[in-house]
Automatic annotation (TrEMBL):
SUPFAM superfamilies linked to this entry: Trimeric LpxA-like enzymes
Gene3D superfamilies documented for this protein: Hexapeptide repeat proteins
Name the record gives this protein: Acyltransferase
Pfam family, one: Hexapep
Amino acid sequence: MKGLLSEFRLYLCNHWIKHIPSNRIRLWYYRNVMQFNIENGSHIFMGCTFDSAKNLTIGRNSVVNANCRIDNRGTIVIGENVSISNEVCILTGDHDMDSDDFLGRDHPVSIGSYAWIGTRAMILPGVNVGEAAVVGAGAVVTRHVHPFDVVAGVPARKIRERAFNKAFKYSNDYKRLFQ
């Protein structure tokens, strides 16, 4: 019965709640029903889907834009003031292709504070994106990204470093009524 209830709340989340045009209502559901740890000032825009209850922590003032896929079967930790653009896919699970029974595995993903993930980027299982790193649009991130690195491409490769500035002052303060 417990598994059925868990599947039902995930179904509601991914087929009904994601369409509600109120961040406040969606966040209430994510925090209280899905048991995500989402700090104040953070937003999850409409259309985002999840693979599990729990296993998701989002720091303050971070933004997950519309239509992202968050595979939180493994743990995902997103820092403060992170900007995740539209249609980003964050994966934590894969399969052991050499296993006789195609064994499923979960690997944690972390995204450091002040990171920016570009539109339609894909973060693969087990990857850590460092503080203030930038992942270009459409990149497929297969390895750890060091703090302040800018990566792009398939697979993602370092193309430069972001200006080193430990005194970031910006805050992702989105206040949109219908998103």
